[in-house]
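Deviations from the work plan: none for this task. Representative record:
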Amino acid sequence: MTTPAFRAPVTADPTLRRARSGGRPTTSATQLAVLPLLETLRDHADDPDLYEVLDLDATERTWVRVKATAEYELWLISWPAGASTDWHDHGPSAGAFTVLRGALTEHTFDGGLQLAEIRPGHSRAFAAGYTHNVSNETDEPALSLHAYSPRLHTMTRFRFYGDRLEVIGVERAGQEW
Amino acid sequence: MSALALATDWTPSRPAATAGLSPRAAFQEVVALGAVLLDVRPAAVRAREGEVASWLPVWVAAPGRLHEAAAGLRSSARVVVLASDDDAAAGAIEQLRRAGVVPCVGVDGGFAAWRSAGMPVEGLAA
């Protein structure tokens, strides 16, 4: 977990105070809807080269961006047994992912904990702000392909308390990944 | 492709009654779109209710000094007003608009809703 370096002053000054200076991020206006994201995944999932890009025997989760356009980007992720993303969202991006090899488990929370298992040929798609925790709960490595639109810009990190999620930080493209 | 799942737990909600943002939508505007988060609660109220977490870029302006605050706000970024409740937010937004800060919107439910939605806070007992 990375904590941004700026701090807000905690003073009693009644006039306006500003916590930090610095540039404001901008977000691309171009964006694919969810269904085109699924089509994009389907169009790329058959590429045999995807199986050669990452080392499936790595001991940690590894990832590589395999394609980026003005509208979307594609990430390939390898998951050793037991690997987990922990709880996060994808900022203002919608997304979709599919499993190429192995199996992944997705947890979501909407007042109750939901669980879905995703196997090759299956996919999930989601709108901006969707929060989940994806893990490989099998004994074998897994490989998955992910699409985001607009391109991944920020990710919010959460802690799950069993009955609620609380924001613990934000990660940004170009800084944390 | 099967097992399609659609989720929309963060579409910016704008109830007709307040035309404000949900805490989650407000948070996303601030962290991803560069909106300015403006906490208009009096210092004593902030001390009692808790503060927005200091790792967020939050501005604080006391009531009655909003016209001064407005002078320092860039008109290009939307101002997201966090108050104790919707009435206080509406009053602050009216003041800001009179002072020329046009793109502003409140956080529905104020700080209590912000906190209960799991948005970052500090200065509170767990």
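The helical segments of chain A are 34-45, 50-53.
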